[in-house]
Amino acid sequence: MELAVGSTNPVKIDAVERTLERYEPTVTAVDVDSGVAEQPWSIEETVTGAENRARQALAVTDADYGVGLEGGVARLDGTPGLFLIMWGAVTDGNRLECGGGPTLRLPDGVAERVDDGAELGPVMDDLLGTEAIAEAEGAAGVLTDGLTNRTRALGEAVASSFGPFVTNYYDIDD
């Protein structure tokens, strides 16, 4: 199975490879523009970024599937706080499927800085005294004390968006 991932971020590539390893994928990283803000600010914008990445990655390769992953932040109706969200999209050129990963509430101090216009990755790097946390455990790893990490969290978005391509339950008309 040939997959084109619309990113060169090693964590995103690893998430795809690990999640779909049983299909023995060959994964090609493709540098594409998500078409959304560097820090997506809603579920809609985050999903759009993932969809754009998937479509563009497939369009410039001979892969069987294009995969897009996008992290963002959003406020959820009825739930206080600002949340880290992760979405994936997969396309075979005819069909486009989306699925989400975990949703984690951001600490108030982090949320305030993001609300003021900062991007989550640099805010976390500043808080932790690190560089490129988004290419390592990510905010998901830090905020769960390692119960999950960015690779596993993005992997859930991969699994959720790829599922409709590998099971026939989505083809049932009932």
Folded structure, characterized:
The protein is α/β, with parallel strands linked by helices and 174 residues long. It has one domain: Alpha-Beta Complex (Maf protein), CATH 3.90.950. 39% of the residues lie in helices and 23% in strands. It has helices spanning 10-19, 43-59, 108-115, 120-128, 138-143, 150-166; strands at residues 2-5, 26-29, 65-76, 79-91, 96-100, 104-105. Strands 1, 2, 3, 4, 5 and 6 form a six-stranded mixed β-sheet that branches. Helix 1 (10-19) links the parallel strand 1 and strand 2. Helix 1 (10-19) crosses helix 6 (150-166) and helix 3 crosses helix 4. 43% of the residues are buried.
Task: Put the structure in a nutshell.
With 174 residues, this protein is an alpha/beta fold. It has one domain (2-171): Alpha-Beta Complex (Maf protein).
Itemize the secondary structure elements and their pairings.
Layout: E1 2-5, H1 10-19, E2 26-29, H2 43-59, E3 65-76, E4 79-91, E5 96-100, E6 104-105, H3 108-115, H4 120-128, H5 138-143, H6 150-166
Parallel strand pairs: 1-2, 1-3
Antiparallel strand pairs: 3-4, 4-5, 4-6
Helix pairs in contact: 1-6, 3-4
